Amino acid sequence: MGDIVVIRFDEVEARPLPGAETEAGWIKRMVYPPAVATRNTFLGVGETGPGFSPHRWHRHVHDRAEGYEVRYPESFEEVYFILSGTGLIQWKNERGEVEEAPVGPGDTIFMPQGVAEHQLFNPGPDNLRLLFCGCPLPEVTFTK
Predict the structure, then answer these.
(1) What is the model's pTM?
(2) CA dihedral 57, 78, 39, 8 (to 10 degrees)
(3) In Å, what is the CA distance from 38 to each residue of 3, 12, 29?
């Protein structure tokens, strides 16, 4: 039987958004190895400034940018929960055209297995804060 782990928000390091400029915002990986011995699920909190995205256009296959690389399991699913601010969830349809839907506090975005190329964009004027989680755990390698 495993022990319960309490993770204190103030004790988790805020990192710059993956592949983005420092002023774009931050993420805190709250439930994530090696800090937490999770085998399947991850959870984090992020904040993104106006005009930025917490994660640039990507698919859940393989993603690489300066400072990190992510390999997603084939069965990967992810959920965003908007805590504050407003955003646009954007995705590319089968014709490669961008579609979007506005989201705000209390809205949940579910990205199933094989989700299309997508991003969450903050059109402003306020910061966008979200909770994100998913499973199974992707393999993340930090290169700096």
Answers:
(1) 0.90
(2) 90
(3) 12, 16, 12
